[in-house]
Design a protein that fits this description.
By secondary structure, chain A is α/β, with parallel strands linked by helices. Chain A is built from 17 helices and 19 strands. In chain A, strands 5-4-3-6-7 form a 5-stranded parallel β-sheet, sandwiched between helices. Chain B has 8 helices and 7 strands. Classes of the chains: A alpha/beta, B alpha/beta.
Chain lengths: 472, 204
């Protein structure tokens, strides 16, 4: 019988069924960062537990790390305390730490793939909900809490129930100026922020077949925003070519053996799913969020919906969103003045994102009232960008070029919104207060749309600027 | 490892936290996670919903004199509670504020697992039941709300409400195996066996 990648990976990693009915699932790769791990290491110490597979865990620092300086100690004592804790914990338990001195530091979901740690057919866990990113490779990747970080450290396993599987098929051809970010925002808008609860998502269809690995990562990254704990794309030639030559990927004859296994793990045609949803990508316009969750999304020319356009379940949140954001239903977001532009994050902080944004940045100057930041996802992304002259393009246009980290996606470092500033952001969450100010307002969009908003000083339609780019 | 602690029943003053899609950033803003322990999170639960930028209390159910009784509490919530970030700081903040159990229409997956991993029973009920329970609490908040894990019922002011706790979760709570570490570590030999059969573990 034809089976799915999800079933095959689950079966290959299922150690046993636990008395609770959960599966004890082996985790092939465990990624750790400084915010959700210190309590887990402390719990290990208190319980007298060791780490049996330290080589299967890799740590980095991303959430609290400043992006304006490398200087230690950090000005923020609490951040310095967290940095020292992860250094101490990794040393004590024999775990590799990708800090700034390693040259491999970056956002956990950027460095795993670029080092070739993330591979098809694996199970991956990390104390971060955007772990779903790694599904782009055909891995089953779960975001977990701190108690589970402890469990994975102590046993290399999770106790977990198998979710149901939904195939999300997007066909058609994306128009110029429409990116992977627009595709995932559209999916979340259509299926809802609760729609994926209890499901894993398999993304399929011609739109995903044509995507690069970085684009697939952008989509899988935001699976959790649609309620799905993980999302994946089946591995194909694009996946294998991306992995070839990566430092931690197999090489030589081992690479060929790996490809054979990876290929064998992909979903087979005729496999069955608990649910199938089919969407069309051809008519998509650039998407912008207007509200307080990623499902509050509209095409850049669409009007902010009225409460009455929503199901009863969503109305109270929509009303809350209208009040919090201060926009009126019936307006479009186009022309809405922005105060901050943020390009970066585990969703859109990779080299291809910066290239797309730089193309737009070349066309003008950041408006004087806008603070614009470009934060590369990793030191490796920064090096590639430097080799291509991107920092000069951004600086010339009036953007600040920063050091790698999560930065203003969740504002645990000094990069924060102030008051009720409006931020055009390439990140993943527009929750109330997400970007560091309790009244801050986030508009999620693609990196190219953020660059366009920075230059216009207001939400604009990047498709019109792409027209200019073609002429110039 | 810690002793097995069975959670058969949780009882406490009720607190209705109305609204769908309440994300974990709202439960505990990221700026309060800059610490290497969970200590002190209780007072910061729902901080930005409860206080103005100047630290003045806002009109919020957690400040309502009818709901500020000291001691254990049981929260009643609506749909998709705890969505967004996987931060265990969210259930830890609620727990440290006194919320020992939750009843709601639905919960986000990661948040749900994080609660169970801390021995906090999480029960679900249909929308009508939750509304009836919330109304009963809002009309007369002076009683304890009890979740009986074994019987799978919630009781408030003499009324019984049907709740759902899946078999496996119920068993974990009753047996005290909600802290999965012990059982996972006990499977070490089988883990090694599984690892041996995965071609990537030894680099193909």
């Amino acid at each position: 019988m034809a089976s799915t990648l999800f079933d095959k990976v689950w079966q290959a990693h299922a150690v046993r069924e636990l008395p609770s009915g959960q599966t004890q699932l082996f985790i092939g790769l465990h990624l750790v960062h400084e915010v959700t791990s210190p309590q887990a290491f402390q719990m290990l110490r208190e319980a007298g537990l060791s780490v049996p597979y330290p080589e299967r865990t890799v740590a980095t620092v991303d959430h609290i790390i400043p992006t304006h300086t490398d200087m230690r100690p950090f000005d923020d004592e609490q951040a310095e305390g967290m940095m020292s804790a992860i250094e101490r914990n990794c040393k004590e338990f024999g775990i590799r730490l990708l800090d700034r001195s390693s040259g491999d530091q970056g956002i956990v979901h950027v460095v795993g793939p670029e080092l070739g740690l993330t591979q098809p057919g694996m199970t991956i866990a990390c104390g971060d909900s955007h772990t779903s990113t790694h599904g782009a490779f055909g891995a089953i990747a779960f975001g977990i809490g701190t108690s589970q970080v402890r469990d994975v450290l102590a046993s290399q396993c999770l106790a977990i129930n198998k979710p149901k599987l939904r195939r999300v098929e997007v066909d058609g051809e994306l128009k110029s100026g429409v990116y992977a970010k627009d595709v995932i925002l559209h999916i979340i808008r259509k299926l809802g922020v609760k729609g994926g609860v209890g499901y894993a998502y398999e993304y399929a269809g011609s739109v995903f077949d044509r995507m690069t690995m970085e684009e697939r990562m952008t989509v899988c990254n935001m699976s959790i925003e649609g309620g799905a704990r993980c999302g994946y794309v089946n591995p194909d030639q694009t996946t294998y070519e991306y992995l070839r030559g990566r430092p931690m990927a197999p090489s030589g004859a081992a690479f060929d053996r790996a490809v054979e296994w990876w290929r064998s793990m992909a979903s087979e045609s005729g496999a069955s799913y608990d649910d199938v949803q089919v969407l069309d990508g051809s008519d998509l316009a650039p998407v912008v969020t207007w509200g307080i969750n990623p499902g509050h999304a509209i095409g850049v020319d669409e009007k902010i919906p009225h409460v009455s356009e929503y199901d009863a379940d969503d109305r109270q949140t929509v009303e809350d969103a209208h009040g919090y954001m201060g926009w009126k239903p019936g307006q479009t977001l186009r022309g809405t003045k922005i105060d901050v532009a943020f390009i970066g994050s585990c969703t859109n902080g990779r080299i291809s994102d910066l290239r797309e944004a730089a193309k737009i940045a070349k066309l003008g100057k950041v408006k004087s009232h806008v603070k614009a930041l470009v934060v590369p996802g990793s030191q490796d992304v920064a090096r590639q960008a430097e080799a291509e002259g991107l920092p000069e393009i951004f600086r010339e246009a009036g953007f600040e070029w920063r050091l790698p980290g999560c930065s203003m996606c969740l504002a645990m470092n000094p990069d924060k919104l102030i008051g009720d500033q409006v931020c055009a952001s390439s990140s993943n969450r527009n929750f109330k207060g997400r970007q560091g100010s309790p009244a801050g307002r986030t508009l999620l969009m693609s990196p190219a749309m953020v660059a366009a908003a920075a230059i216009e000083g207001a939400v604009s339609d990047v498709r019109e600027m792409i027209g200019e780019e073609a002429k110039s | 490892m810690s002793e097995l602690v069975s959670v058969k029943q949780v009882s406490g003053r009720p607190i209705p936290l109305r609204g769908n899609d309440i994300d974990t950033d709202r439960i505990i803003p990221a700026r309060f996670m800059k610490a290497i322990t969970f200590d002190g999170l209780g007072e910061l639960a729902f901080h930005d919903e409860r206080f103005t930028a100047d630290g003045e209390p806002k009109d919020h159910v957690m400040h309502d004199p009818r709901f500020i009784a000291k001691g254990d509490r049981v929260a009643v919530v609506n749909k998709n509670f705890g969505c967004g970030s996987s931060r265990e700081h969210a259930p830890q903040a609620l727990l440290r504020w006194g919320i020992k159990a939750l009843i709601g229409e639905t919960f986000a997956d990661i948040f749900y697992g994080n609660c169970i991993a801390n021995g906090m029973p999480v029960a679900t009920a249909d929308a009508a039941t939750i509304e009836r329970l919330m109304k009963a609490i809002e009309e007369d908040p002076a009683h304890d709300l009890t979740i009986d894990v074994e019987a799978r019922t919630a009781t408030y002011n003499g009324e019984s409400y049907a709740i759902t706790i899946p078999d496996g979760i119920r068993q974990q709570l009753l047996e005290g195996t909600w802290d999965a570490t012990r059982v996972l570590v006990a499977g070490a030999e089988q883990v090694a066996e599984t690892a041996k059969n995965l071609p990537y573990v030894d680099g193909f």
